[in-house]
Task: structure prediction
Amino acid sequence: MKAIILAIGDELISGQTVDTNSAYLSRRLAERGVETVEHRTVGDDKERIASAIAEAAGRVEIVVVSGGLGPTEDDLTRQAMADAMGCELQLNAECLADIEEFFRLRNRKMSPPNRAQAMIPTSAEPMRNKLGTAPGIAARIGAAQVFVVPGVPAEMKWMYDNCIAPRLPAGEGVILHHVVHTFGEGESDVGAKIADLMKRGSEPTVGTTVAAGMVSVRIISRGRTTEDARLQADLTVKTLYERLGNLIVGKGDATMASAAGELLRKRGQTLATAESCTGGLIGEMVTSVSGSSDYYLGGFVTYSNRLKRDLLGVSEELLARHGAVSEQVAIAMAEGCRQKLGSDWAIGVTGIAGPAGGSAEKPVGLVYVALAGPEGTQVFRYVFPGARDMVRLRSALAALNCLRLALLR
Result:
């Protein structure tokens, strides 16, 4: 079976809100053997929404629409759904009672516009919403099953589990999505190493994407059963590890910080950080991982030369001779940090994030990463392209990658 997912809202069209619902729905439908062939975003225009619903229903077996079920004037999905079905809206007594109860339980007075949320197309079935005030809609348009759910992610997810999934017919097979994250080489370099796996028509389907400074390899495997699909994916992942080696950071939800953190935990070792141009970003990444207190002691954000000197012991003579952005200062920051906090490992980062501050000798994007550890200190020089945020992000990822590789060795 194939599906089209429609996301409704001017806020999505304008870029004010990022559509995460469609990606979630695609993954969940794939678990039932339903292949999503298109994501489409439509603004708050009744005629366009109705046209999009009708057109999608004519092409695939399943259509899921999220958003536009609120109580305000710009929430037009109910009316558009009725138009696409060729029927009228009708007040549903059960839905109205649910909405009134929702407000009563919270000691709030129901606003008159909320009554509109109980309006359901006459030929459709309401889907009750236990988390909010907007009921969903289930209907048939031609041969297609059409489901309309609220745009609020928590409500959408609850409604998929409790209202949509039980109504889906048994799919023919299973589709699984896997991802393997890499760091250290560009997309073209990674692609060249796995070009044969990415050929059109190959099974499983393999492709690459770049996001947040990392190159990820996507695998879509299909099988009659979950076990068949997983076996295909496992064989491909094994090949990726053989081809890409230590470029691979991890799979699935793994991040650079979680990969390095897990290696620290296995060794029973600790980490501290001394940051200048990254401004605490490395520490933020490390502490975003649950359980990071097992190995992360803390860090210094020494943006000024005075704090590099006073907190980390970087000498005035070193700063004057080589400048704050230098391998000598990066080394002194890492070693000073390790000594002050008594950690097994310490990272020191200094650089020019831009857009100002660069020169011919020290261009914007120049970053030095020093890693002080049990066997001494290493320093790495990078010149990262991109705007300020990207330079800082890549610097933080590169620093943690230096730690990860050192721990692997």
About this structure: The radius of gyration is 27 Å.
